[in-house]
Amino acid sequence: MIMNAEIITIGDEILIGQVVDSNSAWIAEALNGIGIRVVQITSISDTSDAITNAMDDACLRAKLVLLTGGLGPTSDDITKKTLTEYFGCQLVKNEEALEQITEFLTSRGVEMNEFNLSQAMVPDCCRVIPNRFGTAPGMWFQKEGIDIISMPGVPYEMKGMMRGTILPDLKKDYNLPFIIHKTILTQGIAESHLARLMKDYEAELPEDIKMAYLPSPGMVRLRFTTSGPDKKILENKLDKAVKKLNSIIPEYIVGTEDEKLEKSVGELLVEMGSTLSTAESCTGGSIASLITSVPGSSRYFTGSVIAYSNEIKKNILGVSSSNLEKHGAVSEAVIIEMVKGVRELYKTDYAIATSGIAGPEGGTDEKPVGTTWIAVASGKQVIVEKYQFGDHRNRNIRKATLTALNMLRKLILAEK
Amino acid sequence: MIMNAEIITIGDEILIGQVVDSNSAWIAEALNGIGIRVVQITSISDTSDAITNAMDDACLRAKLVLLTGGLGPTSDDITKKTLTEYFGCQLVKNEEALEQITEFLTSRGVEMNEFNLSQAMVPDCCRVIPNRFGTAPGMWFQKEGIDIISMPGVPYEMKGMMRGTILPDLKKDYNLPFIIHKTILTQGIAESHLARLMKDYEAELPEDIKMAYLPSPGMVRLRFTTSGPDKKILENKLDKAVKKLNSIIPEYIVGTEDEKLEKSVGELLVEMGSTLSTAESCTGGSIASLITSVPGSSRYFTGSVIAYSNEIKKNILGVSSSNLEKHGAVSEAVIIEMVKGVRELYKTDYAIATSGIAGPEGGTDEKPVGTTWIAVASGKQVIVEKYQFGDHRNRNIRKATLTALNMLRKLILAEK
User: Fold this and answer.
1) Interchain pair B183, A308: CB under 8 A
2) What domains are there in chain B, each with its CATH number?
């Protein structure tokens, strides 16, 4: 039997659009990973009425309710008080929580004050969930066979509790099935035309496999989902469905949604014992920043030259004045000099270079905003591509960053 | 009177964590902008039961219900069918919608098929909302004084409808007040200690101003919210509250939400006619990436040397081998050479340098994970600080990035 869960996020910052609720997606994925299905996510205001009503509703639909937010030390944090009243219990000083708070603050050289002290007060009808990354303890309540868990809204504190206590304990306490998803990426065909090609295929799909279309600019993802007690059987079932799809729309399938690009590129480089550097103009350090977000990236990444100005392109990367004058910084001639220049200067096996017009200004008729040259180089070859992205500065930077990493991935795979 | 709204997002991709619901934050901010308050955001599955129940609940609390998702041409899109039944009406071919779909497909050279044709079928009890960016028409229902609006989940299609029809029409149809937020950014003080300094201030804040603490890595944001019929009065009220805050915690305030740190630093540099470069080790391009996220940053930012390896620190930035050997890369001696090196190499007025142990590996007893040296330099001086951040790699990078930018801001202000 699949266990149904609901997530309730508490905080006006979500309701006014100041913060995007990324916690819920993380929690949902983590719960799916241990065989629990999320049936509703609800974001509500920091008021005790809203919390109480949302709890009542969720308990009608789910056996597990996870709350985030409103556990901070300040006056606008009312979740703990509301839950204490909701469950009809008392706030008492919890020695275990006090010890953790003291330890946490001491390790950071912060003095304990009365606001921190108040965080060690916990309802006497819940189990305390340790918080290794902050001062607000989590709370685990049980009521009429329903588990109700309250966590801080700060993402890394919440994730620490989920990983350290909640996920392992749920797995231990309940006999949970497996939920398996597989997502296929298609490119070069509109959703409606894909649906037409796949009409018979969809009709013949086993009933316990659910399929969904997820369109996004330039790409339609197809997600397959199934669940059951035997992981191996489920995986075989999905593999079979995907294999059959491969025979129907082979020309549109470009891959699966696997691990993050920056991580898989890093793993490839480690595997090859190779090194990487980047020369970034329009991406302004975004590629380097993504690469170095991966732990251990110093094993293969030596660094970058961020060459925002033409002077730096010339003086550091050795781009020729004549090419800059004749073709401009956003050109094939210059991107080739940039990628070769950084690869030589930083003495790496591979290199990436970007030069483009991120916008909103700087576009011309010939080179409108979004025009972007990307090059990747190895000792054997330089591959250059020109892209025309959109109008939006930060989306252009993001697209160029991911595209460049993917070009490098393909180059490494081809030379492997 | 403030109008209460709810947002319902339909789609399993959110409930399994495959997609982060960024639509709701955008819609909430847009509604706030015309004086409508969002009281709940609910994400549900693609089932007619879930949609019907969520609609029933939302109509009890709100006068405006906005739905996104489930309007595509494929079999898993069931919102239109469900709403047609919910309102007890019939699907009929809508000529206006058909014309728009035909035009949209023609402009993209895509052939119309039966899936697209089915999108021109619309319930006969709603007003059609034109979709300039896709094939799914929006639907505007009214029932017992409640407006219920269904939009596609594809962000740019949804945004097109909101901007083109929904926001202007809501403004026209209702006499809406103003909702004003102002967010102050503070840096260098923990939330609990900020709360302590601000205890009296909070108690004296006018009752119609709501204040909230929003902690995030390296920063605590303070959000002030008020609403009423006269925008000028509201703005004056918030300005007064912020001015008073300025006299209580001047050393911790680094900007406002509309005036992000990277933007205010950029404006300072433009004002001074000065230029900036960075030499980044542990931040790996994150500072450069943040600086170049600001449009027009090429006016003052020449670029960076990302020196992840010691070789690059030596060969490009001119850090001495003896200092690297004697003190290590994460040291005062090396950070000073880095900041001076990049400032000279890139010929800029100001420079920033970072060197630290981001983690999770690489820490020692003497220099545990989180140890970070940051330097900022002008022509007159070099300011160096050592920080002890936490255990978490990407949080450490983020903290070092914001702290470095703030150190530069203070240096520029001091020399101004």
Assistant:
1) no
2) 3-173 (3.40.980.10), 178-256 (3.30.70.2860), 261-415 (3.90.950.20)
